[in-house]
Amino acid sequence: MSKLKNPPSPADGYRGRFAPSPTGPLHAGSLVAALGSWLDARANGGQWLLRIEDIDTPRCVPGADLQIQAQLHACGLFWDEEASYQSRRQEHYQAAFRRLNTLGCLYSCSCSRQMIANTLAAAGVHTPRNQEMVYPRTCRPSQMKPNSDEFLGETKKAWRIALPENCQIQFEDLSLGIQGQDLCQEVGDFVLRRNDGLFTYQLAVVVDDAQQGITHIVRGQDLLNNTARQIYLQNQLGYPTPSYRHLPLALDANGEKLSKQTLASSINTESDQSVLAELRKAGEHLGLRDLPDGGTTIAEWLLAATKAWRDVTANTQPKD
Ligand code: GLU
């Protein structure tokens, strides 16, 4: 059981977080997200929490959570409060899921990916590789209503949220400016619980951000495309929307996002010198200038980086 108190309101001050999925050790790309979110929290005198997003258990690598924590420690990126684990918070996701059901917006779906692809192809819709298929609403009932508890317990099927027509979401990203997505056109009714019974990232992250009182989300641009879905769920569940800042992605030599799939290697934390080299690389990627390139401790470097972060973000802090 996680020990979360009543969620603090934004009036209690800045609360940020780093939320890695434990699918492997930190690599140069995830260090950019860790450092950027840490700097933003510290530059604003805020708190920085660590959440291990181990909701997708089949993808998790045993021990990766502890390895990530050891790497963050080695980098001097200490977090406030106890690290939280999504795998221990199922009942909170279940409660939110049931709440959405009372709004009459959930329906079960037995379509496989192949069936969805075939339906779309038959309708002449071809989804480019790396883009999501917009669900063609095959299983959506013509009249939406709350499902019985018994039916909601059906775990062999996926459960989707029915979006209203014209579901345009807009938000201001602190780095990228105004962003918008038409959820119906670009995403479609999305899955909140998978057919293996696991709640999806979209639901879990929204519940956790709200219950942990997160006021500022600073993360990689690979997650930008998820933000409208998350804001939509926040609105449905009556949660506040935090401010968002999406950071430039670290790419490999082929222009691909660094990730476990592209075999990004673990950051090197063997010595303070190697940690400083990793931090410097991440700092440069974040656009930090005039940082000491030698003769400092990790703590001194982080202090200088916090000041540099304040300078580069001076014009893009949220307005009160
Ligand atoms: N767990 C997600 C990832 O590692 C990050 C989620 C988030 O920051 O919202 O990609």
- Ranges where pLDDT stays below 50 over 5 or more residues in a row are 1-11
Instruction: State mean pLDDT (0 to 100 scale).
Output: 91
Task: Give me the count of strands.
Answer: 10
CATH topology of the largest domain: Rossmann fold
Strand order of the largest sheet: 1-2-3
Quaternary state of the chains? single chain
Helix and strand content put the structural class at alpha/beta
Percent helix range: 25-40%
Total number of distinct structural domains: 2
- The succession of helices and strands, N to C, reads EHEHEHEHHEEEHEHEHEHH
Strand content bin = 5-15%
Task: List the bound ligands.
Answer: glutamic acid
Count of alpha and pi helical runs: 10
CATH class of the largest domain: Alpha Beta
CATH architecture of the largest domain: 3-Layer(aba) Sandwich
Walkthrough of the structure:
The protein has ten helices and ten strands. It is of the alpha/beta class. It has two domains: 186 residues, HUPs (Rossmann fold); 111 residues, Glutamyl-tRNA Synthetase, Domain 3 (Glutamyl-tRNA Synthetase, domain 3). A three-stranded parallel sheet has the order 1-2-3. The chain has a three-stranded antiparallel sheet with strand order 4-5-8. Strands 6-7 form a two-stranded antiparallel sheet. α1 crosses α9 and α1 packs across α10. The N terminus is likely disordered.
